[in-house]
Amino acid sequence: MTTTESRTALVTGASSGIGEKLAAEFAADGYDVALTARRRDRLEAHADRLEAEYGVETHVVTADLAEPDAPAELLAELRDRDVQVDALVNNAGFSTYGPFAGSDRATAQDMIQVNLASLTDLTHRVLDGMVERGHGEILNTASMAGMAPTPNTAVYAATKSYVLSFSEALAHELEDDGVTVTALCPGPVDTELIAKEGMADSDIDNSDLNDPESVARAGYQGLKDGDRVVVPSRRMQALAQLKRVLPRKRVVSLAANQYEQYG
Known about the structure:
Largest sheet: 7 strands, parallel
Oligomer: single chain
Radius of gyration: 18 Å
Order of helices and strands: EHEHEHEHEHEHEHHH
Distance between the termini: 32 Å
CATH topology: Rossmann fold
Number of helices: 9
Shape: globular
């Protein structure tokens, strides 16, 4: 285990799934962790486990990142507690499944705010401090859906395409500043995301879903290795390569069938 001194990782969407496991990866490596999501009971239970198992300090701050003011309020709360963010894990996000026509407008706007706008705002607010200190880490949870337009998850895929592009561009900009940026691009993962907002209506095969722990471990190791993009499974790596070489129309068709063939 690599030890760190007085460093804190802020993990959004930390109450379950990949975010919960990513927080554990940082805690196992000696980081104090700040956990944020909407469900305080889940966060507090997870914080208790991390403190008991790894002896780290934890901070719980509830926030709804669908609210535009949430990033500023979250970081203000941490500043009031004298918590410095040395590693930012932008993991919070959600999806829906179904045609865009006829979908709920408010839900789409919330998705853009959580997956894209709040992620950008949080990154903007912590980045100057990281650059000034000459060290920092940013891990953004993107998705394989971000590598191609994906029918029936059109808005989600578009937000994750932004996250992937944003992460790679920042990684290049910051390569001489001591700040690393990594985009984690899993395929379908066995988390609550599948059951929410109609995702259970897709043809994802639960037996083929990646598990959150292995995805989080791959993302954390990729961050430590300085990788700019992490695709956790070999099957998803092969799919990513196909998407680079196939005609664009075929790529979109392949993405439309991804949940049936590559879940």
